[in-house]
Amino acid sequence: MGIFSPITALANPARFSAFSARALPWLSGVTALMMALGLYLGLVVAPADYQQGETVRIMFLHVPSAWLGMMGYTVMAAASLGVLIWRHPLADVAAKAAAPLGAAFTFLALATGSLWGKPMWGTYWVWDARLTSFLILFLMYLGLMALRSAIDEPSRAAKACAILTLVGSINIPIIKFSVEWWNTLHQPASVLKMGKPAMDPSILTPLLVNALAFTLLFVTLHLAAMRTELVRRRLRTLRITTASAAPAFAPEPAE
Amino acid sequence: MNDPHLGFIVASYAIGLVVVAGAIAWTVIDHRIQSRALAELEARSGRRRSPR
């Protein structure tokens, strides 16, 4: 017993399914409310920025999705440790379920960043360290999904994906610190930095509300996708046992 | 809102809507497909229904 006992209790597929079934309706409701509040604050309440004008509203989508693109990969890296070290049955389920969600948020960050860059920088894309490392993150997600679908045996796919995920996790600190280590067109950190955020509260508050709303959305979708993955694995096991229990195929007599 | 960059803002939120709605729809549809397939197989093989 200890502070980990509630977590270890949940780390059982049956208990996790029961818990997520109870939690998902509540989480979905809170997420919908927070998304609506975030949209209202971002599109209606937040003032135009003194430099960016109305274009600052793209930041309320871009920054949270960029954070979640990185958070999704961090979740996968932690789950990969669970696969390789503890061989936990839920760890690979969590890693697999997080990949398409992380890819979706990473794509959204790239697309909205590009649409912000054209009016503000005069270009949709530059090959600077932040943008390039973030594109690599997106390619890592796609590569991991492709690798998993290319291996039929689930335990082999889990191991291969866990190893590749951990190798690719070196990209996360590179993304975070790229704006400090290299001379980039992308601006340095303005929220997650030492000291006070370099942002007026009228812009910071909607940004943080949207970040919380997007994080809740990620958690909700991740829990739901993990439940589906458990169903998919049970279905696969049942198909195999049903096929092996079926009577041997009897060839039709020759005419 | 009468901003010269309105098109970029609208395009960003439109892509955001498509990605978020797509992620939600994919999650819901995938769960329905897998649950239905499991229920059918369990019914055929005479096994108990598993908790969803």
TrEMBL record, chain A:
Keyword Transport listed: yes
GO biological process terms held by the UniProt record: cytochrome complex assembly
GO MF annotation list: heme binding; heme transmembrane transporter activity
Alphabetical UniProt keywords: Cell inner membrane, Cell membrane, Cytochrome c-type biogenesis, Membrane, Transmembrane, Transmembrane helix, Transport
Membrane topology: Multi-pass membrane protein
Transmembrane feature ranges: 23-46, 66-86, 98-117, 129-148, 160-183, 203-226
Keyword set includes Nucleotide-binding: no
Annotated Cytochrome c assembly protein domain residues: 26-186
Principal location: membrane
Compartment(s) of residence: Cell inner membrane; Membrane
One CC-aspect GO term: plasma membrane
General function of this protein: Required for the export of heme to the periplasm for the biogenesis of c-type cytochromes.
UniProt record similarity statement: Belongs to the CcmC/CycZ/HelC family.
Identification of the protein by name: Heme exporter protein C
Naturally occurring in which organism (per UniProt): Hansschlegelia plantiphila
Biological classification of the source: Bacteria, Pseudomonadati, Pseudomonadota, Alphaproteobacteria, Hyphomicrobiales
Automatic annotation (TrEMBL), chain B:
Pfam families in UniProt: CcmD
UniProt record similarity statement: Belongs to the CcmD/CycX/HelD family.
Membrane topology listed for this record: Single-pass membrane protein
Range of residues in the leader sequence: none
Organism, scientific name: Hansschlegelia plantiphila
GO cellular component, one term: plasma membrane
GO BP terms: cytochrome complex assembly; heme transport
Membrane-crossing residue ranges in chain numbering: 6-29
Main function: Required for the export of heme to the periplasm for the biogenesis of c-type cytochromes.
Protein name per its UniProtKB record: Heme exporter protein D
Localization per Swiss-Prot or TrEMBL: Cell inner membrane
InterPro entries tied to this protein: Haem_export_protD_CcmD (IPR007078)
Annotated keywords: Cell inner membrane, Cell membrane, Cytochrome c-type biogenesis, Membrane, Transmembrane, Transmembrane helix, Transport
Keyword Ribonucleoprotein: no
